[in-house]
Request: fold
Amino acid sequence: MTKPMFEKTISSKTIFDGQIIRVETLEVELETGQRAYRELVRHKGAVAVLARRADGKFLFVRQFRVGSQQIMLEVVAGLLEAGEEPEACARRELKEETGFDAVSIRSAGHIFPTPGYVTEKINVFFAETGDVPGARELDHDERIEVVALTAGEFRELIRRGEVTDAKTLAMWALFEAMK
Reply:
């Protein structure tokens, strides 16, 4: 039998408070009574959507990401707005980034991409769309290319190491497991 593990926060100090994240330092007490130091990035949450068009092709987006300093191929994703339900956010982001409306959408749960020091919870969805997009509604600073791929084409990109975004790889693994 495993021993219980937990940490109780004794104190916290905000180091930075921005639009998307807040950075804190924490003093915690372990189940042994010992104290430890933690750094934590608080994130307001997000959604990710693996969408498939009626013709069977999957919709991805390609964009430059500052954290990796490279162009990444990813599933559609975006931040939750205050009070917004995850499914509504998923539908909104799909429309904004690709121009496609979800004909059907279902939750696949959630993932924590970096749980060691980030609270970000990504609610993940699978969506089915039509074949014809409407107008996209990108934010003024978004530069996004829509990419439609067959499952085989996407698997080949994974095999070649060309897909390195964790949420995208996690979503594809969930999709493959749920077939």
